[in-house]
Amino acid sequence: MKIFYTILIGICIGNPFILHSQSNNGKVTEIEQSLLRSKEFMHKNLDSSMYYSNKALYLSKSIANDTLLAKSNLQKSSLLIFKKGFSEADSLLQNNLSKELPKHIEGQTWHNLGTIQYYKQDFEKALSIYLKAAKILEKSNNQKLLVNTYTNIGSINASLKYYDNALNYFEKALPLSEFNESIRLQILVNLSTIYYDQKLFKKYLESAGNAEKLAKKYNAKRMLSVLYSNLSNYYAEEGSAYNKAIAYGKEGIKLKKELNIQNTIGFTYNNLGYSYLKKEEYSKAIAYLDSAMPGAQGLLKTYIYNNLKKSYAGLKDYKKAMHYADLKDQLKDSITNEKQKEKVAELTEKFESEKKQQQIDILDTKNELQAFTIKQQKTFLVILLVFGLLVLVLGYFGFKNYKTKQQLDTVLLQQKLRKTQLNPHFLFNALQSIQNFIYQNDKEKSSSYLASYSKLIRLVLEKSDQNFISVEDDKLALESYLNLQQLTHNNSFSYHIEIDEEVDEDFDRLPSLITQPFVENAVLHGLKDIPEGTITVRYHKKNNTLCVSIIDNGNGIKTKKDDAKKLHKSMSMGIIEEQLKHLNRTSIGFKGAISIDSSTHGTAVVLSFTAA
Known about the structure:
This protein is of the alpha+beta class. 70% of the residues lie in helices and 8% in strands. A 5-stranded mixed β-sheet has the order 2-4-5-7-6. The protein is extended, with a radius of gyration of 33 Å. The model is unreliable at 1-24, 408-423 and 559-569 (pLDDT under 50).
């Protein structure tokens, strides 16, 4: 579920700099009073604030006082930033930097320059300038000014997803905010949000609790609406405190309705529906999920559809459950449709350049391997010669460590070679076939196969970095892959994919895309020269073990001496074996196995997996 950040980007205006009075010069006092009046009107009436700012600026110029002039420039630049007069504000601030000024005014000047870049959406540049302002303000020991700069640095880091840096600066700002509980409240809300995102739940609850107390003290309803929505999300995801999730969610909705905050209320409604779903109060869940629907977009809508599916399934209204399951799938496809179009076009356009780049990568990798071996051998010989007899004693252990490291690096480089040598011939052939349909103006076939192509590419891109995927995603990948193989093989074979009732498509999981190489083997080798080839894929359970059977009616695996165990010698199968060994070793409770039975009547591959 999404968490909403409350970002504090302030324009820091410090306390008036204490000046030595000048005899017979009431203008100094008048300038100071004008600056104070300008700050008082700053959040009430910008025109009045600007009037007093201009008055202070005019008087400062008349007495040629650089410090007062710099302070007047700062105040007016702050107002101009609010009014988006960035060029004029920048000119005033650059005028400040051309003079020698007290550190706290110099720091404030850089702070306002950073704020200009923030409003221009150049976050990286804004961050660089704020960091410079922080270094100067740290030397001035002015904590009231420094807390604003630290807070803004933390906010930008959070928006750029540099969460470690964001936490560092928010935590530095928090103890400096004792003088202003309003600033402290905003820092606590930001901290709690990042703690939640980083799964630092103990710190999250502590900071959220402190923020809630301050928000209640000052009746900060907008802050409370954020805190309550986030707390509802926390307790809903925690899995054991759904009553708390419901209580906080209802409070969050009440405040958002009162404040007319419509853009995030759907997430809170969804959290409430999810909590009631987990409590198996399906009718209440549906009521809140229906309330979440108006205005819902993107991922939020997929969450709502998925929760509605499970709620109606809980009520045994399987027709509606299937309806929302279909809506969820359609939405998932539509969300990625535009991206997939771009990716398909990019694949087509860049295929040749990628092919050349792969050859370059192979040569570079081989050179790296050779250079690494030579470098290690030279290092070993130099050490052996320099340290003499002493090295002979220690060299045995060093040599063993050296050989182990060399073998590990060699394996890693060989894996890189294997990856770069896996040219996308299948994808290129499929694109060519789709292109032929387009040239023939066969819109139905080109659209159908392009949809399969897009789904396959989407699943590979989304799931390749995950250890496990659901049966539903694996089935969808196989269907898309086999559709494209039928296209490239002129429909010379048929296929069937079955899922037994005891298999839960959403929750039963298997290693990512592990079935595709076996299906590929059946298409390319098992059914070769078979006029009516058939491939059957069946997901079923044996006791608590998830099994996937891949059966073809081909000629089987030949057992000639030079072709023995062909299935196991293929590069893809070797990688699959390494994948299973890795998962067996690193995933607690998981065990995967492969069984192959081949004869002249066909080949049956059975993959079995215990729950991870």
